[in-house]
């Protein structure tokens, strides 16, 4: 193990980096609200709230999800706030929100996920969140007069691509699971399924 990975694995350092990323997500939520991008503001607010949920429940500021997962979730949100907007940012934002949910369930609850189930969970959650995102865009277009939805064919391709990005996020979760799951967690999973 290199000296840098030892520092990063330190709980205090992880918490400091994670809270810094939560602050960036809060910035993205505020900036999106001020510029009238309410869907992005809502997505950033939900991401920040999910990131803050474990320390609030545990009443311990150091009980944070890994900074790497939060950084991945923050990239599309902060990138959009800085003007780096691509269609892939939407897919990545949706997939990383599902990934964040899966990591928090696996890390901070008694539920143990096998890698296959974790991938399926992240993909299914990505598809669900992408569908809710589409419904929110439709509601925004109908009620506020925005023009978020590009058309039916494009919408279907957006959902297909969001699913593909969800599969990629699921594979990332499997790598995360292998890195942080450890042998004792694997044994616990086998013991509970027996």
Automatic annotation (TrEMBL):
<keyword id="KW-0812">Transmembrane</keyword>
<feature type="transmembrane region" description="Helical">
    <location>
        <begin position="156"/>
        <end position="177"/>
    </location>
</feature>
<protein>
    <submittedName>
        <fullName>Uncharacterized protein</fullName>
    </submittedName>
</protein>
<keyword id="KW-0472">Membrane</keyword>
<feature type="transmembrane region" description="Helical">
    <location>
        <begin position="88"/>
        <end position="105"/>
    </location>
</feature>
<keyword id="KW-1133">Transmembrane helix</keyword>
<feature type="transmembrane region" description="Helical">
    <location>
        <begin position="117"/>
        <end position="136"/>
    </location>
</feature>
<feature type="transmembrane region" description="Helical">
    <location>
        <begin position="12"/>
        <end position="30"/>
    </location>
</feature>
